[in-house]
Design a protein that fits this description.
By secondary structure, the protein is of the alpha+beta class. Helix 1 packs antiparallel against helix 2. It has one domain: 2-Layer Sandwich (Ybab, Chain: A). 55% of the residues lie in helices and 16% in strands.
Length: 108
């Protein structure tokens, strides 16, 4: 009985380490997103940290338009980053989970 428990605890610790390593790796995965006309470009990591924002000079004259472009473009980039992040972390978590009936549905 304790052997199974200790084995599960070891597996849990291993999975936690893999999750940590995956999060660190996701800091190096860059997502580039542009507005539809290319006037705003953003780069973020898969952990949703903004790395750069480039704005065309023509947008500097219209504050409202610039704000709209930034919101739309950043939201698209964040959505892509979130999808990558969740997919990667779910795969690591699922790999490390013991085979408990009914738990499969949590990671789909």
């Amino acid at each position: 009985m304790f052997g199974d428990f200790m084995g599960m605890m070891g597996k849990l610790k291993e999975t936690q380490e893999k999750v940590k390593a995956t999060k660190e790796r996701l800091n190096t995965v860059l997502i580039d997103e542009s507005s539809s006309d290319g006037q705003v470009k953003v780069t973020i990591t898969a952990n949703r940290e903004i790395k750069s924002i480039t704005v065309d000079d023509s947008l500097l004259q219209d504050k409202e338009q610039l704000e709209d472009y930034l919101v739309l473009t950043l939201n698209k980039a964040i959505e892509k980053a979130t999808n990558i992040n969740e997919t990667e972390l779910a795969a690591v978590a699922k790999e490390g989970m013991p085979n408990i009936p009914g738990m499969d549905s949590l990671f789909k």
